[in-house]
Specification:
α8 crosses α9. The chain is of the alpha/beta class and 344 residues long. The relative contact order is 0.15. The protein has one domain: Spore Coat Polysaccharide Biosynthesis Protein SpsA, Chain A (Alpha-Beta Complex). The chain is built from 10 helices and 12 strands.
Length: 344
Amino acid sequence: MPRHYRTSVSLMAAVVLVAVTGCTNPLPTGDLPAFREAPAFRNGRGCAAAPTIHVAMTLDATYLRGSLAGVLSILKHTSCPENVTFHFVAVSPFHDLGLTVAAAFPSLPFRIYRFDDALVRGKISSSVRRALDQPLNYARIYLADLLPRAVRRVIYFDSDLVVVDDVARLWGIELGPYVLGAPEYCHANFTAYFTDRFWSDPDFPHALDGRARRPCYFNTGVMVMDLEKWRAGVYTRRLEGWMEVQKKVARIYELGSLPPFLLVFAGEVKGVEHRWNQHGLGGDNVEGLCRDLHPGPVSLLHWSGKGKPWLRLDAGRPCQLDGLWEPYDLLLRRRDQSPFAVDV
């Protein structure tokens, strides 16, 4: 089926539109690995009246395998897969990344948006893990600028997760007056996400005063975002403000793009069931040791932390839960392998 792409430029991004016409399995021409073509998922009954669901993810060579597994998991488990539109944010290489996605998912509606890493290079400070310092890790801050204004709501997903439930259930949560919806973890030690320098400052802690609820930790790898409210509240600039404090005034945190989100939104987040972010499966940020699931039901498995399932599987040292990610892996290891079939 022909795919047509248009080129547009927004305030912060150039949308990269890659044409794929008639090729059954086009391959990228660069150094990216090859992937199998995923099964075609079709809408079930009642989808004509169902909403379009917008999902945003980042896309790069390092996490491409995880991104494609995440896409497959979403399509596999939703009742209206043809109603899901994907918005991929990338720095480079746009052409090859687009061809790779189109080869794996020939009928997938998607766009790739160019993220100008110069926007954040002067604002990023070192953190506990090098991966957290990459400019693309901050792209979620700019989604309201990157995506067309016609996109009023989006689900942001990290590239190290799989969804095992109908994403329409997450899409349908009511945000009310809030800009973000995400699972909150109020048992976590919130003070540990900031340095002693932050807490000893006469002014910084007061930024958390006056919140609707007690500020709690939430993981930014799974967020439902009201982009209209975001734009109206100039939240990108608020987040950048804390990044500038960290870079130019005082070192107030150690964990990349997460602490600015906590400073701006903690206590003002629409709580979502924990089942939608069974996070931490990649272990801690230093050693990445194996971890078990949190108690309760599971709709989304998230390998946040240092350990990624595809790396541990390739090394022959997987954690037990990495086997739950493996069925969604589209990596083509041998060109004579049989067509991919998912059975999970």
